[in-house]
Amino acid sequence: MKTPRLLQYLAYPQKITGPIIEAELRDVAIGELCEIRRGWHQKQVVARAQVVGLQRERTVLSLIGNAQGLTRDVVLYPTGRALSAWVGYSVLGAVLDPTGKIVERFTTEVAPISEERVIDVAPPPYASRVGVHEPLITGVRAIDGLLTCGVGQRMGIFASAGCGKTMLMHMLIEQTEADVFVIGLIGERGREVTEFVDMLRASHKKEKCVLVFATSDFPSVDRCNAAQLATTVAEYFRDQGKRVVLFIDSMTRYARALRDVALASGERPARRGYPASVFDNLPRLLERPGATGDGSITAFYTVLLESEEEADPMADEIRSILDGHLYLSRKLAGQGHYPAIDVLKSVSRVFGQVTTATHAKQASSVRKLMTRLEELQLFH
């Protein structure tokens, strides 16, 4: 008797370890979504998992959500499609989980006009991109005057703990001229997410904001998906002709989530404990913002430094991909100077493209004076 065709593509889990499932699934692809049901004859979906690795005889999947309640008797159903989410104007003023579900609103709901988009996609092709030529006015004098950013630029905010990264993000949201703000909080504490939502609720720009979160207790694949979903939401509004500002806090925790997923799928660690695929996936996300013929995404990525003195290979890798970085100084923060931007250690690689000759000359003069002042302080 032949096995029914449907059953040839189903599988029982052979191993469940935390959020990782191993099963003999056929004809599945990396990133494919699988439904988990109580039995092959039941329609109720009790959980979902994402394919993260393919070994010789087994497929490695990572659970989306919690593993509590799963047994050996559950059945994995391949769906043949990647993880997607519904995005549109209805997400403005809303808080989204990593699957795109609206969990809270801090504004009244708008018309539910939306479209379904796969969250893990390639960056826009070269032909659709345009250069960075227009300055982005942030309202932060140290940035606008000495580290001018451009519309469509990707900037890093590098700092160790307690230097005011969140405060700088708040300032940029309140003062930057843009149509939409998308905030991705990746691997943050639950308290910080709550405080950020409270800040947005009190902001006069709350109707323009979308917040996507995956706190530190979420599985690694959820933290990866949250960063991709935030970028997907920003891309939707860019395609609508909007000027979007995207924040991802933090890229360090996103990279750690990528590492956890890669190690669980059987990859070997390479540089500083990170598998090689992590360094392949970073530019895949970081290259998605930018300006196109329709609209623009200006992105700010926070990077948590372990130490201000020691070399950090992950921070160096991210810095090499971005169009500039703002370095926040623990010394300035300790003196109560906020935002604690160390101008001499920071750089905007599009500064010359978005400023006038007079502006550039004056900024250069100020930087020379600051350099001289720093030298004098060393001998004081």
Automatic annotation (TrEMBL):
GO terms for molecular function: ATP binding; ATP hydrolysis activity; protein-exporting ATPase activity; proton-transporting ATP synthase activity, rotational mechanism. One of its GO terms (biological process) is protein secretion by the type III secretion system. Residues 151-332 form the AAA+ ATPase domain. Its EC number is 7.4.2.8. The keyword Flavoprotein does not apply. It comes from Salmonella enterica subsp. arizonae. This is protein-secreting ATPase. The gene is spaI. Belongs to the ATPase alpha/beta chains family. T3SS ATPase subfamily. The keyword Metal-binding does not apply. It is found in: Cytoplasm.
